[in-house]
Amino acid sequence: MMIAVVGTGVIGESWARLFLAHGHDVTATDPAPGAEERLRASLGPSERLRFTDDLAAAVADADFVQENGPERLEVKHELLAGVDAAARPDVVVASSSSMLRPTDLARGAPAHPERVLVGHPFNPPHLVPLVEVVPGEATSEAAVDAAMAFYRAVGRTPLRLRAELPGHLANRLQAALWREAYSLVARGVATVADVDTAITEGPGLRWAALGPFANQHLSGGPGGIAHVLEHLGPGTEALWADLGTASHTPELVARIVAGVDEALAGSDSADLLARRDAVIAAVLAARAPDGA
């Protein structure tokens, strides 16, 4: 297959890496100065990678389009209009958008809105399996089925959402945690480092193995989640009522930035990324059926 990668920033580069690793040809496009040089330096030499600054040429022969433009609707509309005009009518156009609704995105592709959907990965897409597939009001079932099949074929775990919401599913779950994390720091309950430690040394380890409902079920012993809900349900509701909220005031932003700088003092960003990716790879290997 020929895959068009529209936008080659952090997400687009990772998508291209994944598609190439699975034997696909990739045509990438990005108008940013130096984009081709950065992409090739990151991915290394490949005969299957082509780059063009002509959007229409990039998608003309594509069998699947993965759009990764900036998270601004007007920019997405401009990109999708160009894709819509040049790509074959049967080609799925998947947006990596993390917040925008596919129905709103599809307004930028008036000729064939039925092939537009959200295919939202988790960073970095070449390592993290999750892809949220979100159809819009005009999206056809054929486009959804094709996207699900394509993502499975490149080793991802596609998850079809049943409704359009800002942030889709996983980002909304993350946002709930971030809201309380920022609130705890704002109230002086914990430092930035404390919050990160609480997750990495606690529930984060369990979440890498099983989701929140499955973990809650195991916490109930023989009675499972029914026991948990019976005995801890009222306390959990009381916690929900006590959870805080926070606004990105200049004071809180400054405290968060300073806290991250303090927690990561002496750390190299490239080393942190390498460590993160190595842990992700190790977790995925440990979860594999054969443990390897």
UniProtKB/TrEMBL annotation:
The keyword Ligase does not apply. Residues 167-228 form the 3-hydroxyacyl-CoA dehydrogenase C-terminal domain. Residues 3-161 form the 3-hydroxyacyl-CoA dehydrogenase NAD binding domain. Pathway: Lipid metabolism; butanoate metabolism. The keyword Secreted does not apply. Keywords: Oxidoreductase. Gene3D superfamilies: N-(1-d-carboxylethyl)-l-norvaline Dehydrogenase, domain 2, NAD(P)-binding Rossmann-like Domain. InterPro entries: 3-OHacyl-CoA_DH_NAD-bd, 3HC_DH_C, 6-PGluconate_DH-like_C_sf, 6PGD_dom2, NAD(P)-bd_dom_sf. PANTHER family: 3-HYDROXYACYL-COA DEHYDROGENASE FAMILY PROTEIN, 3-HYDROXYBUTYRYL-COA DEHYDROGENASE. Belongs to the 3-hydroxyacyl-CoA dehydrogenase family. This is 3-hydroxyacyl-CoA dehydrogenase NAD-binding domain-containing protein. It comes from Actinomycetospora chibensis.
